[in-house]
Specification:
This protein is 25% helix and 40% strand. It is an alpha+beta fold.
Length: 89
């Protein structure tokens, strides 16, 4: 599912929680480095703010010719609509 510049992939439901993958990228350089960093911080804050269990978060190495970031976490499925309707700009 692609939502407002975020790719959200739904995983397996277990104990009323699902595993989610959020991926963002700026390989087309539409965002300046400062706006990219602000965008990553906003997404990170939103995910952490949901009180989820994060299994992985990271991004491309600093010498890579592309910019991307990824988070893998468990979240109660009922929180998903709150997360994706928030503005991250």
């Amino acid at each position: 599912m692609f939502v407002s510049g975020l790719m959200v992939l739904l995983g397996v439901m277990m104990n009323n929680c699902a595993t989610f993958v959020v991926q963002i990228g700026n390989s087309d350089n539409r965002l300046t480095i400062q706006r990219w960093a602000d965008f990553i911080r906003a997404i990170d804050k939103a995910i952490i703010g949901c009180g989820v269990e994060i299994h992985f978060r990271g991004g491309s190495v600093f010498v890579a010719p592309w910019l991307n970031a990824c988070w893998v976490f468990e979240m109660d499925e009922s929180l998903l609509s709150k997360f994706i309707t928030k503005s991250y700009s």
